[in-house]
Amino acid sequence: MKNFITIISSFLLLIFMNSCGSQSNISPANVQNLLDKGEFTFMAEHANPTNYDVINVMNSLPNGSASRMLTLDSGYTIQLKKDEVEVTLPYFGRMYTSSMKGDNSFRFTSKEFTVNRSVGSKGSSVFTVLPTDQKEVSRIVIEVFKNGKTYVAVQSNDRQPISYDGYISANSTREK
Questions:
Q1: pTM metric for this prediction
Q2: 2.40.128.410, 3.90.1010.10, 1.20.120.610, 3.50.80.10: which CATH number matches 27-169?
Q3: CB 3.0-4.6 Å disulfide test: which of 15, 37, 122, 158 passes with 97?
Q4: Percentage of the residues of the chain whose pLDDT score is greater than 90
C-alpha cells in the first residue's frame, strides 16, 4: 500500500510539473509563416535587467527571488510591420541621461529603420532592427525560435542594455 501511494504521488507530481512548463500556443508552421512575411508582434513576458543595483533591490524585497527575471503584465510589445516598428517596453536599469518626459520606458514608433534577417543558432531566425529616426535606441535584436518563443535584446545610446523573453503572434488588425 505504501508503494502504491508513492507511485501515485510521483505520477501526480510528474503531471503537475509537465502542466507548469511553458507551452507555445502557435504551431511551427504558423511561426514560419509569420517569419517569412516579416510582420509579427512580440509579446514580452519577462524582463531581464543587467544592472546589479536593480537586481539587489529585487532580491531585498520580501518574497523576492534571487533571479534576475521580472515577470511582466500583458501589453508590452514590439509590433514589426513593413513600414513601421512600434515599441512599448518597460525599462529597469541605469540611464546615463535623464528624460525630461519623466517616462523611462521604451515607447516609440519608428518609420525609418532597416531590418536585417539572419539564421541564428539551432535554426532560429534573428531580426536586427536599426531605427534611424530614434536617438535613444540604437539596435533591437529579435531572435525567434521554431516554437514561437522569442528573445529580444535592446541596446540604447543612453541606457544599460536590457533583454526580454516572450513569444510572437500575428499582428492585430485595427479597423479604421
A1: 0.77
A2: 2.40.128.410
A3: 158
A4: 39
